[in-house]
Every structure is written in C-alpha cells, then in structure tokens.
C-alpha cells in the first residue's frame, strides 16, 4: 500500500551519525549538499546526533532551519556509531542511501561515481581504502590485522580495508532494517545480504577537525562484536583446545602411572602447581569465550529497542516520534513519519 512517505521518496538520502562534530558539521553539510545538488534536486541529508556533549544538535537545528533538505535526528542518549547509523537508516527514505561519517575522512564527492556504478546494476557500492591519511602506524597495523583475521574467521566474505562508507539501494536498506540484532557490524550485515556489491577504491583523508571517536578500547570492543556476530570459529577453537588439553592430560597421567610402577617418586610440588595453574587458566579462557556468546544471547532475548529517538527536526518543525519506532517495519515507519514528510 503506497503511503504519503513513499510518494515523497527522494532519489538519494545521505545518512551521517554525528558525535561531538560541531566543528566539522557545517563544512560537511556544505560539501554533501554540493555533491547532491550537482546530481539531483531530490535528496535529503539525515544527520543523527548520537547524544553529543557539545553543540552538535544546535548546529543540526540551524542547518535544518536554513536547508529544507536537512533532517535532524536526536537520540535520547549515546548509543554508539553502529546504532546511530542504524537510526539514520530507519529515518532515511531515499531510493538510494549513502552512509558516511561526518568527519570528512570519506569524501562525499564520490557520490556521483557511486551513483554511476549503481546505474550499471550494483545493489551496493562500497568505498575501499587504498590509503589512509593522518593515522598512526599502530592504527594502520591493527586495522590491517583485524580485516585479515576477520576474512579467515567469517563464512561471509567481508571486503578488506572497507568501512561503513557506501551507497545502498532501497531494497538492500529495507532488508538491513529487518535484522534485529543489537551487536551490529554494519559492513558485515550488508555483505551478508548479498546482491551485486561493487568496490570503489579511494584515498581516505585525515579528519577535518576534532579527534577520533574510536580509541583502542572501542576498537577492541568493535572487533569482538564483528567476530562474534559473524563467526562461530572461536567456539570451535575452544572445543579443539579442550580436546588437545584433555589428550595431553591423559598422556601425563599415563606417564605418572608408569613412573609410579617403576618406584620413581617425584619429590616437590612445583610441577603440580604449574600444571594446575595452566589447566585452570585454560578453563577460564574457554569459559570466557562461551560467556561472550552467551552474554550476546541474553541481550538479544531481552528485546529492548535498538535505539531511542527523542525527536526529529525537519525545517523549523520539531516532531516527537513513538517509542517503538526502531521496531517498526519499513512500511509502518513510512506511515509514522508521513505527517512531517508532508510539511517538508
């Protein structure tokens, strides 16, 4: 059933999660608007404030007042990059949706090339980094290790050296929004959907302003989410390590019995304590692996909303949204936001 929302569907939506990006937002908006208007007049720019502590939301409100193409989404609290991006994708209504960060490391000017690839039949066009300016050797080395390890562990082929910077068709976005998992790894989820996914090589720039929102601790958590969401290999490793350890313990027992039969008694306890400590540590490690997966199952079964939207700003109009917005299917979300779409 066609809704008001679908009748007003723009050709392209640009979705950008924003966390403490007040210094770069106006420059980002200017470059994105120029890239979009150079292709079509039918576009929207969805800026998601992920619980920022600076004036990010105030800047978004000002941009929405000045530019009718801007839609501001304000979350109740900080949810993290992946859920903020998901919230933006829920609101975006374009036939094609570009996902990009607001720090201008990924150039919005590539929209035209991505659109051309999609015109040729691509369902997804993802940016693949050939270089990364302004990043330390440690960040580059750990990122390279992460992508190569992920390739070995996952059953779904996830392209190397890619982020969430991509252009997706409406069909792919709607399929993505039907996925309910909380521990989200967007580039892996989009890869899992399949279809014709095409790489677009590009050079990644340094941040326009501010500092990285991904310190080492967040990078580690992100890597754990990626691996546990798309691979059961750690569980299999735990099983094999357990079997090998059990086999070694059996051999040690047979050796001890043989020594006892030869009346050779080993004095001291150092070796015993070492063995106990080794086996105990190994057991705790394996329990930790199982616990990581079990904890994610517990979070999924709670059924809490993925994100909580406080309000949506379109032009000078501020709209409250229902608390169950993140759980609505695409057609139902169209009905919910039809009113504020009509005002635009």
In words, what does this structure look like?
The chain crosses the membrane at residues 237-258, 264-290. Its main location: membrane. Belongs to the glycosyltransferase 2 family. GtrB subfamily. The protein has 344 residues and is of the alpha/beta class. The chain has two domains: 4-214 and 305-343, Spore Coat Polysaccharide Biosynthesis Protein SpsA, Chain A, CATH 3.90.550.10; 233-302. Helices cover 50% and strands 17% of the residues. The protein has helices at 4-7, 25-37, 56-66, 81-91, 111-119, 137-153, 170-177, 186-193, 216-230, 233-261, 270-302, 330-336, 338-343; strands at 12-18, 43-49, 70-75, 96-99, 124-132, 162-169, 197-204, 309-314, 317-319. α10 packs antiparallel against α11 (270-302).
Short summary of the structure?
The protein has 344 residues and is an alpha/beta fold. The protein has helices at 4-7, 25-37, 56-66, 81-91, 111-119, 137-153, 170-177, 186-193, 216-230, 233-261, 270-302, 330-336, 338-343, and strands at 12-18, 43-49, 70-75, 96-99, 124-132, 162-169, 197-204, 309-314, 317-319.
End-to-end C-alpha gap: 22 Å
* Helix percentage range: 40-55%
Tally of strands: 9
Sketch the topology as an H/E string, one letter per element: HEHEHEHEHEHEHHEHHHEEHH
Number of helices: 13
Number of domains: 2
Catalogue the unreliable spans: 1-5, 339-344
**Based on the structure, what is the oligomeric state of the protein chains?**
single chain
Beta-strand percentage range: 15-25%
CATH topology of the largest domain: the name is Spore Coat Polysaccharide Biosynthesis Protein SpsA, Chain A
CATH superfamily of the largest domain: Spore Coat Polysaccharide Biosynthesis Protein SpsA, Chain A
The CATH architecture designation of the largest domain is Alpha-Beta Complex
3D shape: elongated
| Category from helices, strands and their pairing | alpha/beta
Strand arrangement, largest sheet? 7-5-6-4-1-2-3-8-9
Membrane topology: Multi-pass membrane protein
GO molecular function: glycosyltransferase activity
Organism: Teichococcus coralli
Subcellular location: Cell membrane
